[in-house]
Amino acid sequence: MMYLGIIFVPPVYFLSRNKWGGFCLNAALYGIACLCVLTIVGIVVAPLFWALAVGHAGFTYRKELMAVQADLIATKMAEKMRQNQPPQLSKP
Q1: How far is Cα 77 from Cα 50, in angstroms, rounded to an integer?
Q2: Neighbours of 85 (CB within 10 A)
Q3: Model confidence, pTM
Q4: Are 11 and 49 in contact (CB under 8 A)?
Q5: Tens digit of each residue's pLDDT, the chain (92 residues)
Q6: What gap in Å lies between CA 47 and CA 44, rounded to an integer?
Q7: What percent of the residues of the chain are helix, what percent strand, and what percent coil, each to the nearest 5?
């Protein structure tokens, strides 16, 4: 569902994540694309700005997903390492 939002209205992704810098940049790119669509001459250039906005939002979303996945893997590995520790020898 998030991918559909990223494809059709990329600035909403940044707005939902409270990433204001990304939102401003993406809203500018998406706004230029929308303005270009309104002109007959700019309709040729509009897909470029739209693709930049979608690429920016998609790249940020994938980076976020990879960070969450890396955190899950690190947590599972830490649990496994705690389970596989050799027994501690007690000092007399």
Answers
A1: 40
A2: 7
A3: 0.78
A4: no
A5: 888 989 999 999 999 999 999 999 999 999 999 999 998 888 899 999 999 999 999 999 999 999 999 999 999 998 988 888 776 777 66
A6: 7
A7: 80, 0, 20
